[in-house]
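QA checklist item 7 of 12: single-chain prediction sanity check.
[x] sequence parsed
[x] length recorded as 229
[x] structure emitted
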Amino acid sequence: MTKYLEPTPWDKRNFHIDTFQLKEYSEAALAETDKTEGHFTIKVDPFADTANLKKYGFYYADTLIEPIGKKDKLKQVDQENIQFTHNFHREDILDIAEEAFTGGRFHRDFNIPNHMADTRYRNWVNDLIDKDLILALELHSSMAGFFAYQNDQILLLAMHRDYRGKGLATAFASSCVQEQFRLTGHDTLRTSISPTNPASLNVFISLGFRLNGAVDVYHKLNGTLADGG
């Protein structure tokens, strides 16, 4: 499209409008969004001057904090009878995902109807299943959750609602991290967590992850979504 706008087809399929992420934070890049119909995402330093974001119609969506963990620095928390498997029913994973991921930035975007945000996360998890990047967590032969990963990135970690609040979150996260180290061979892992999810952030910090900065995420809608949202 332009040197400033990068199409994001994985979002377009959910919102039925062209979607883009901005390649840089400059007035020239922001001005391109006034000339193009679509939904836009930009990530900026939390200390950046945001006057031009307001000028060009961008609004705050979320903040992403990046925890980083080095293999030799992390605490291992053991939990008996945890197993990982690639053999699972797709719908079981999707059911956990839909119930667990309801506070993401697209759910918080007042221009995106909740059903579209739900569809986006469902399609993302479907893609991860198709790429064989999800492992189910079993506890006593029952599906207790799942985690998704890619290279050194921890993408998603979710527990079934029946296993939440039982003091298992840290052991589950520790087991997932150690399994990812084993599968990928990386000695450093990283993830992104919104401060609206302090429970998850606290789990990673308790394992020895260190915070490596943050970015603020802003959105803009120039046009109308297909369903009038």
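[x] summary fact logged: The helical segments are 9-15, 27-35, 51-55, 90-100, 105-108, 114-130, 169-184, 198-207.
[ ] second reviewer sign-off
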